[in-house]
């Protein structure tokens, strides 16, 4: 039997919006080995500070991967700070796992749209593997170009050389040409996702057609593979601006 997925944690707005057209939502995706509970306290901090009070938060859960003995959105690869000496030395990426997770995240967007949340008032973001899932959902799902924004914290872009082909498979134009807002952040002390992969991520986004003027890129001194208060304050300000 396939593993059962724990339902997402859904945190309603602290102050209900006046109507569906005024509603907004964030799908906030956890990282490898974590779960939705690991992000709930961050949302509660925002709400206790009266930040984003009209926001619905959706915190999805990855499946348990028994081979990895951990929750995972896909099977990760090694992330070296140095490029391989030969292309064939790159690890094979788990395209099947990535695409299955994109399908699940897309279904959560479907649910929000069915409830009347405008597509342009839905933001998808995440941490680490969640960063990867958020960006890829915004690039190769049917909601490419239709969402309000994407954010990625301490992550990278898997399948980067496959994105154009995956877009064509999905019936999307080969190149991205939309006004989506993007927020990317990392810590300079992150040893799990080296800076090289952060740079390759945003360079590839720009090659695909994500607009540089719509992209905010932040680095935080001495921050490791974690989320910091300064980073979350900047993210909150970006979310407020994106949804104003």
Could you characterize the architecture of this molecule?
There is one protein chain. The protein is an alpha/beta fold. It has one domain: 3-Layer(aba) Sandwich (Rossmann fold). It contains six helices and nine strands. The protein has a seven-stranded mixed sheet with strand order 1-3-2-6-7-8-9, sandwiched between helices. A two-stranded antiparallel sheet has the order 4-5. The radius of gyration is 17 Å and the shape is globular. It starts with 8 loop residues before the first strand and ends with a helix. The model has no long low-confidence stretch (mean pLDDT 94). It is an enzyme of class 3 (hydrolase). This is Acyl-protein thioesterase 1.
- Gyration radius (Cα, Å) is 17 Å
CATH architectural grouping: 3-Layer(aba) Sandwich
Main sheet: which strands, in order across?
A: 1-3-2-6-7-8-9
Mean pLDDT: 94
User: Which outline best applies?
Assistant: globular
Output the structural class.
alpha/beta
Strand content: 15-25%
Largest sheet: 7 strands, mixed
- Write the CATH fold name: Rossmann fold
Helix content: 25-40%
Distance between the termini: 45 Å
Q: Which segments are poorly predicted (pLDDT under 50) over 5 or more consecutive residues?
A: none
User: Would you count the extended β strands for me?
Assistant: 9
User: CATH H-level name... which superfamily?
Assistant: Alpha/Beta hydrolase fold, catalytic domain
Helical segment tally? 6
- Give the tally of structural domains: 1
Helices and strands, in order, run as: EEHEEEHEHEHEHEH
